[in-house]
Amino acid sequence: MENIGFNKPYLTGRETYYIHDAVSAGKLSGNGKYTKKCHEWFRNTYDFGKCLLTTSCTDALEMAAILLNIEPGDEVILPSYTFVSTANAFILRGAKLVFADSREDHPGMDESKIEDCITTKTKAIIPVHYAGVACDMELIMSIAEKYNLYVVEDAAQAIDSYYTFKDGRKRALGSIGHLAAFSFHETKNIISGEGGMLVINDPQFESRAEIIWEKGTNRSAFFRGEINKYGWVDIGSSFLPSELIAAFLWAQIEKIELIQERRKYIWEEYNSELHNWAGNLNIGLPQIPGFATNNAHMFYLLCEDIDQRNRIITFLKEQNISAVFHYLSLHKSDFYRLKHDGRNLRQTDRYSDILLRLPMFFELEPEKVINRIKQFGLL
Amino acid sequence: MENIGFNKPYLTGRETYYIHDAVSAGKLSGNGKYTKKCHEWFRNTYDFGKCLLTTSCTDALEMAAILLNIEPGDEVILPSYTFVSTANAFILRGAKLVFADSREDHPGMDESKIEDCITTKTKAIIPVHYAGVACDMELIMSIAEKYNLYVVEDAAQAIDSYYTFKDGRKRALGSIGHLAAFSFHETKNIISGEGGMLVINDPQFESRAEIIWEKGTNRSAFFRGEINKYGWVDIGSSFLPSELIAAFLWAQIEKIELIQERRKYIWEEYNSELHNWAGNLNIGLPQIPGFATNNAHMFYLLCEDIDQRNRIITFLKEQNISAVFHYLSLHKSDFYRLKHDGRNLRQTDRYSDILLRLPMFFELEPEKVINRIKQFGLL
After folding, report:
1. Residues in chain A closer than 8 A to B245 (CB atoms)
2. ipTM value for the complex
3. Measuring CA to CA, how many Å separate B370 from each of A63, A200, B8, B88, B342?
4. Is the CB of A240 less than 8 angstroms away from the CB of B194?
5. Under a CB-based contact definition with an 8 Å cutoff, are residues A180 and A198 in contact?
6. CATH architecture, range A256-373
7. pTM metric for this prediction
8. How do the domains of chain B map onto residue ranges?
């Protein structure tokens, strides 16, 4: 039986062409032609603030933590059901993590639990748009305003996804928080192998972001002719990716409509074709809240319990299909278990146990997975 | 008159071929086939300890600072005549910088000044092999041993360069300190656009380095089958570069002998042809200490004073040649000026004023620069 992996990076066909062009131009380090093309496209397409490509989403989150001047003792509120990078970026600056539980209907952070996590030391809220599905950004931004906090959207999975405000305004995810971080890791909708982007929507952070990105120097201002020599003015790192990475990403950007159309088709096939099967087995399918759109980053099942999930994983493995669970709760990790404030995170633990991701990639033929998975429960 | 830039990245011709191969294999994120090929080659060729490619030399230095558990209040000793990343990596962990002056005969750190910088809070010494020329590693390692300190070689410019011990043993730079960091930025001898590598020579750091590299998770051990699930066990970041970067670097590695031969030829041409001209104008040429080799990373002039340097830069500009000065002293930077301990760093300031780098790249025809530069002083 044909082997179906969990992910297969999709190539538009122009990646090596643009890389070759960048190589020929002899500019391979960061912030060249393709980096600038990507910045401009993202900004114009999604109405983002200043955009800065980074070597990873992790690095974009680290830039955010530096920009917010996170210091030892500061607290940040984030979901426990997330990738380690959401947490590490703030831990590296000495922050204490306060985990909010996930929603009952969705693995994203339960917005109603946020206020209970706020103390006088809270500095920022980090909503993670799980599976590319929006958190309730209007509510989160109003809480942030009330308590004078910053919001960093962890939009790693959320490219080309939207949030609708109560007044009907529709905004791209990543354009709402003070800062936002995206990933272009090979598992994402558009990719560059490893890669990410920081979006700076609050203009107060714009010039410092550029400095931190350029290793703490005012090099960018120097090359714009604003100052006559550049030097060390702040902390920073080498956050900017090679032009090779930006050139690859540019080829992906060109085909984002095609990519999104295909992924949404696959997602809808899963959703409609598995509906009855799932219902019979007490398996839940993804819920998209009314204020969110679906960018078809991920399709998952919510199994009855961990045993059922294990049985489905094993069954699919026998059918040569790779389906995988997702995050282990960060508050139960070896690293943070003893530092966690003891808060009960029932939904987080539930998703850790029952969520199962099905294969999702451009070239997937969903009927092959659907036909095989439907055999589960019949035997 | 033909324009001669300061640097032009050299392409061996196989870069896009290997990138295409990596792309076709469908593995674009980090730690794939080409990453492993690079690791193995460096380890075998230079007798390095464990090697881990990183997105930049900056990131390799940051990994080193994390591995050494640098904490607020800890002190590190480094030259002031260096790139900001040597300093930033440790500043990000809260370290206090103690700057040692440069040697009189070379911009590298003056080893005789190190002991005077040591206090009970000193944790590490960071020798920078300026221009790829070794610091006196035997002396530095003996000081480190005496005071129980760690040594991190900043070998950003020092690939394929060696140090000879008093007993005649010759070791590659980067293989001697407990840790070492390399750069493959497009200005270096072998390149990947942006890129770097951490070398772990002290085995006590090996397993933790792998965890920090993989975002604080024990994912590598999981994929080797040593544990049956992986999770968050430590701080970390996304330090590993895309396979695109590793594939590019592999094409460079294949031609390193050719590259080094050509660069050394250019360097020797400069050195012999400019000897008399420089002597007449009281300009110094690079000195290579007896314990060091020359990897031809850089050719520089030591001008009489800053005015002469400015006049030569202007003269060469009129001849369409780009020659550039190098570091501004970090202890005089806007960021660190007020934090510097006040130590007099006379040689550092001297090199900041008088050092001038001449164009140096594979495809350079050195006689073109030599012929034009020799006109300076005749007019």
Report:
1. 193, 242, 244-245
2. 0.95
3. 44, 47, 18, 37, 41
4. yes
5. yes
6. Alpha-Beta Complex (3.90)
7. 0.97
8. 15-253, 256-373
